[in-house]
Amino acid sequence: MLKHSIFLRIYAGLVILVALVALFAYLLVQIINYQRAQEYRESLTDGMAYIISEGVARQSTAQQKMDWISDASDLLELPIYYVKADKVDLTRAETKRLEERKAVVRWDAKTTVAYIILSLRDDPSHLLYIKAENITERQMKALPVFVLDYLVYYPGQEKKYLEKIQHYFSYPIEIKNVQELPLDTEQIGRLRLDYSIILYRDSASVHGTTISIVSPIPSSTSEVLVVGPVPLFNWMPFQLAAGITLLSLFVLSLGVYGLLVPMQRKLRAVNFALNKMKSGDMSVRLPVDTTDELGSLASSYNNMSDHIERLIGAQRELMRAVSHELRTPVARIRFAMEMLADEDDYEYRLQQVEMIDKDIEALNTLIDEIMTYAKLEQGTPSLDFEQIVLFEVLDQVLIETEALKTGKELELNALPIHVVVDAERRYLHRVVQNLVGNAVRYCDRKVLISGGLNENGNAYVCVEDDGPGIPEEERTRIFEAFARLDDSRTRASGGYGLGLSIVSRIAYWFGGQVTIDESPSLGGARFTMTWPARRFNKMKKIISDRQQEGAE
Description:
- It is a multi-pass membrane protein.
- The protein is α+β, with helices and mostly antiparallel strands.
- The protein has helices at about 5-55, 60-75, 90-100, 135-150, 160-165, 185-190, 240-280, 295-340, 345-375, 390-400, 425-440, 500-510, 535-550; strands spanning about 80-85, 105-110, 115-120, 125-130, 175, 195-200, 210-215, 225-230, 385-390, 410, 420-425, 445-455, 460-465, 515-520, 525-530.
């Protein structure tokens, strides 16, 4: 039952959807951070690339350039190679960066080694190739040395040229008075000893942890070169976290909408069908393509529509048939009353009174039949099942029928008195009474009544006659209300055409059925009603379902 629950499917869909969105968000963060990390590495090396390129360009001879590169390699403790440009395969984006005097960083995630490529301003045929396996404090403190080496060519104009090259750096580079910095005595003492110091700042802002490098300027005792603050790479900054969260919520909302759209579509179809029903159009049926609650709702609606349509049809037929059936006895009563008004003969008047009394009795019988049929057809019978000795009901009907002096031979096949079945006595008696009365009306001479338990363990009652029988093509129509055949079972034989309809509906509410075939022993019609002899849980469910269907 749970696997057909629409709510369970929605919850399971939400769990799967959340897992997929989480995986999508994780992969998206990885992709974005891969690009951010690459841009971060390039931004850290762009300024260094420009300074080193300018340092090499200032050397007048090739040997001086090689010596300068060697000194730079020792200072950075990183191998720097002077290679020909045509030996390095560059992409279009890398070539453009080198033309803009920026660095090209190639990161190998497996070995965690960065390969940095620098261009030379005065030597486009060569490149500098740096292999950086890890970045230590030594490389960080070397940066101010290269900057000061660049500024040494501009005495007295250091701040001006710092501003000029600032756009090559993604972090600030300034010359400040040492008193402006939040340094303790120990740090100031290290500066006076010509040592660079590194300042760590942990901030709760979006910038997070930053690093600043403070280096003394040889030509000044009060001013220092401050590089930074340089933000450390933040794998989950606020902007990225907020963006991924909003995007994930948006994707999740789309997924939830996708889960609810089928249910919304089906509910809209149900609403449309109900509006059609309200307007009197009973032809709309809903597709039952699922086994969940909405499929059950569609099936219930279709059953309700079929039932209402059948009730409306039955009501029209009932009204038409009732009006037709009532006219005959009413007309006879009116005619008899007119005859009484004009007749003085006492004996004749008594005959007319007897005829009127018979017509009134016929009206009472018709009304009783109509009320019983309507109650069963509307699906609201009050069934009080109990254990009944089947022989007693059959024998009672036999005695009552023989008392009518029909002149027909009635025979009850002997059945064990101990056969007990579950049934509603009043309605079971009505079934046997109607079947026997119908057989007596149409038989030639003999009626055979039997009952008991069949090979399937179901209870049954059977009534056979030696009459003309019922054609096979008419055996379904005969259970319709007010239905009569065109052969010997006609109006002349009496009845209103409701008896077999009542039998059919009682069998339905008993959880059984009525069948018609040919009597093997008498040759006429054989009516057999079967129903469960014991009301087990399955039987209770059948009755409950049918009562619910009737209530709809």
